[in-house]
Amino acid sequence: MSLHTNRLKKRMLRPLAAVVALSLLLCPYASAQEAIWSSYNQDGVKFFEGKEYDKAEKLLIEAVKEAEKLPPEDAQKLLQSLRVLRKVYLAMGKGSQAAQIESRLRSLGDMTSGSSSSSGPTEDPASDPSSAKYREDRVATTFKQSTPEPAHNEDSKAVYRDNTPDTSKTTEKEFTISTQYRTDAPTETSVEDSEKPIIEPRKLASAAGFAGLYGGSKKAIEVVRMVGHAGWIKALDFSSDGNKVLSSSQDNSIRLWNPNSGKEIGKFEGHEDDVNCVIFSPSGSNALSGGSDKTVRLWDIDQGTELKKFEGHTNLVTCVAFSESGSRVASGSYDGTVRIWDTSTGKQVKQLEGNLGTVRALAFTPDGDQIVSGGTDKTVTLWNINTGAVVRKFSGHKNEISSLAISQDGNKILSSSRDLTIQLWDLSTGEPLKLLQGHTNWIQKAIFLGSDKAISGGLDKKIRLWDLNTAKEIDSYQISSVGMWSVAFNPKGDQIVTGSDDFSIRLWRLP
Fold first, then answer.
1. Of 459, 479, 484, whose CA–CA distance to 223 is shortest?
2. How far is residue 338's CA from residue 507's CA, in Å, rounded to a whole number?
3. Using one digit for the tens of pLDDT, what is the confidence trace for 267-301?
4. 140 in helix, strand or coil?
């Protein structure tokens, strides 16, 4: 936070204690928390009305933070602050921030904040520099577009590296983005009509089994809250023993947590931009991360130090994966490539490409010789790592792939998609085996639980447990009224962690 902002906050806080004390004296049942919110909110409104928008923005951001701490029955106070903050952003010409606030208002049930509501599922906060959600405060965003040439287009659709130029392609956009104090929420962007999942409600209910048919969701139980990040939680991962959690954030940091106590036990700094993905190594001794600074980094968990920095991607890194042995890692990017790296040397050993779009998900086969990738091309691709050749493609999803998992025996693939479906595939033949339907908003992640079950989580704030033999939903669990922008499951599937609207991480127990 800037020195100017700190000084402004100090000036505001001087009379704040008096305001709180007076309010409590006049109304003994009023809470100090409400008085703090009221002070910030009232002053923010005054500055807005006086067209001092910079001051109004800072005060209203604080008002929103304080309103988030109030009990549920005071939810209107949060809406009130958000509405004014949206008006401030509109007056300042910050359209992307205003849109983000409007999206959050709509997610809270407020339909009076702006234009007509968007249709279709809402967007998650995945890294995507073409969308408004990619940064919380864009002070200097520049786009440099050169003349068409055989490179990546603005959607990062990769082209084959042969000697035949494809002049229909345009160069990728370059982004120069400052990292100021971050305030706005992930945008809930509607899906294009052509990409909306074609699922009839009646079929959806029957496919979901009894839980989906009768709406019998159980309540997930919040166990502990982990607080420390200063930005949206972009990725989460459980260690293989379930005793540690990794998180990465828009605040450029990675943090290590004890999920049982909720305590932060480690912090990894080095990325110069958003950290979009982070995972544990199979042994649990290392971590791998990828960021918007276009780098992939290998970390020592115990020492908290950076072991290797892998450089080569030409755009932000969106996903990473470890081989079972840990000797190789992979990364996918907005530049439309999958890159394989040697962890001992830090060198790139293979580059996989070919009309992939943005790569959103990766998973190694247990033997480490093959890898699957998926993303905006809506296709799961199986690669031979040694030759760099495509082994086969798995087609059927109607929207981009959001996560991939391979069964322990290496025979099956589980893919989740923003078309609201999860597909089980036969890895050796490419044939679809089961289609799992039940989620009503974009699916963030799905993983195997043993050989015959799976668990998934999505922006519908539901955790769903599946029987892979019948493709039926066994159970579903409702997360309380906080966003689930990122999610991870412990190995047993009885606990999950989510990245929430208030920048915290919540551990939930499934009853």
1. 479
2. 32
3. 999 999 999 999 999 999 999 999 999 999 999 99
4. coil
Residue pointed to by tokens 């409007």: 102
Distance between CA 250 and CA 229 in Å, rounded? 8
Extract the tokens encoding 364. 């190694």
| Tokens read off for 405 | 């998992």
DSSP H or E stretch at residue 214: helix 209-214
> Residue 436: which pLDDT band, with cuts at 50, 70 and 90?
very high
d(CA 160, CA 26): 72
In sequence order, which residues have a C-beta less than 8 Å from that of residue 151 and are 6 or more positions away? Answer: 159, 169, 170, 171, 172
Give CB contacts under 8 A, 24+ apart, made by 30-38: 31/70, 33/66, 33/69, 33/70, 34/70, 34/74, 34/77, 36/66, 37/63, 37/66, 37/67, 37/70, 37/77, 37/81
What pLDDT does residue 216 have?
56
Give the pLDDT score at 133.
38
d(CA 86, CA 236): 30
Q: How confident is the model over 341-388, as pLDDT tens digits?
A: 999 999 999 999 998 999 999 999 999 999 999 999 999 999 999 999
At 35 the three-state DSSP class reads: helix
Query: Which tokens belong to 190?
Result: 């509607």
Structure tokens at 237: 């991962």
Q: Specify the DSSP class assigned to residue 149.
A: -
Q: How far apart are CA 497 and CA 505, in angstroms?
A: 7
3-state secondary structure of 61: helix
Rounded mean pLDDT, 125-144? 34
- The reported pLDDT for the residue numbered 151 is 29
350-365 burial, b for 16+ CB within 10 Å, e for fewer? bebbbebbbbbbbbbb
| Tokens, residue 414 | 């589980």
With both helix axes pointing from N to C terminus, report the angle between 32-49 and 75-92 in degrees, rounded to the nearest 10.
Answer: 20
Q: How many angstroms separate the first and last alpha carbons of the chain? A: 41
Sheet of 472-478, strand order: 218-219, 472-478, 462-467, 453-458, 443-449
Rounded Cα distance between 283 and 408, Å, is: 16
Supply the DSSP string of 442-456, one letter for each residue: -EEEEEEETTTEEEE
Q: Tell me the residue length of the chain.
A: 511
* Tokens linked to 195: 């990409």
Structure tokens at 250: 């828009």
Residue 168's contacts (CB-CB under 8 Å, 6 or more residues apart) are 148
Task: Tell which phi-psi region holds residue 34, choosing left (phi > 0), alpha (psi between -120 and 50) or beta.
Answer: alpha
Show the tokens assigned to 500: 């929430």
Give the C-alpha distances (Å, rounded to integers) separating 9 from 32, 118, 162, 397. 18, 36, 58, 50
What is the residue-averaged pLDDT of the chain? 78
- Cβ(422)–Cβ(449) below 8 Å: no
Mean pLDDT in residue range 152-179: 30
Residue 32 has pLDDT above 70, yes or no: no
Residue 427: pLDDT above 50?
A: yes
